[in-house]
Amino acid sequence: MTPVLQSYVGGRWFGRTVAATLASAINGRPVAATHAETIDFGEALEHARKVGLPALLALDFQQRAERLKALARYLAEHKETMYAVSAHTGATRTDGWVDIEGGTGTLFAYAGVGSNELPSGHLVHEGPVLPLVHINAFNFPVWGLLEKFAPSFLAGMPCIAKPATATSYLTEVCVRLMLDSGLVPDGALQLVIGGTGDLLDRLEESDAGTFT
After folding, report:
1. How far is 153 from 57, CA to CA, in rounded Å?
2. Residue 8, CB half-sphere, CA atoms under 13 Å: how many?
3. CA distance 33 to 75
4. According to the model, what pLDDT value does residue 120 have?
5. pLDDT in tens, 45-59
């Protein structure tokens, strides 16, 4: 039976009904399926703002950096779980290394920035606010998530992640590991499998959107 991928929204995993089947790039057989249940994006944003944000701001820059470092170590210890799934995306071991260990390396890098360059408080004086756009050139199911999660986490901003559907089964494995680690506060990371519905329409000017 093809497993149904689940979204993680509002502090819970949900999704049981098959929507679209995702095939292995190796043999064309079904790997997983997206779920048909509709996501309440209003709930997702409220959970991020009212639960995730306070939980992150309860930690200072140094504490969040330590969490990132510990999370990188945890994912490195469980990397073979991700490698086994990565093969279905058509990735070789070397391709998977760039994605998986490149992703954990990004966590280590931002942990280093936090530990070495940021204070033990909550504020950094940087001058006037500048609009930034963070768009990357290629999709990696693990690295694509972690390279955006790391700076957001360090800055104290909760994340709602939407991976590319075709390889979202690998991202789901990564998110489950991250949450199982106990290092990610409630509401700091949510996962969307499938379409984004009206999510973008609900964003405010204080929110940030990053794309691969």
Report:
1. 10
2. 23
3. 24
4. 87
5. 999 999 999 999 999
Q: CB–CB of 120/77 below 8 Å?
A: no
Answering whether pTM is above 0.90, one says yes
Residue 137 has pLDDT above 60, yes or no: no
Angle between helices 102-117 and 61-77 (to 10 degrees): 160
- What distances in angstroms separate CA 11 from CA 52, 179, 184, one per listed residue? 10, 10, 12
Q: Quote the Cα angle for 190-191-195, to 5°.
A: 130
Q: Is the dihedral of CA 15, 21, 24, 27 positive or negative?
A: positive
The DSSP 8-state label assigned to residue 135 in this structure reads B
Residues 6+ positions from 122 with CB-CB distance below 8 Å: 57, 60, 61, 156
Nearest Cα to Cα of residue 37 among 12, 56, 73, 71: 12
Nearest to 185 by CA among 50, 40, 41, 15: 50
What backbone phi and psi angles, to 5 degrees, belong to 185? -60, 155
Query: Can you tell me the distance from the alpha carbon of 134 to that of 54, in angstroms, rounded to the nearest whole number?
Result: 24
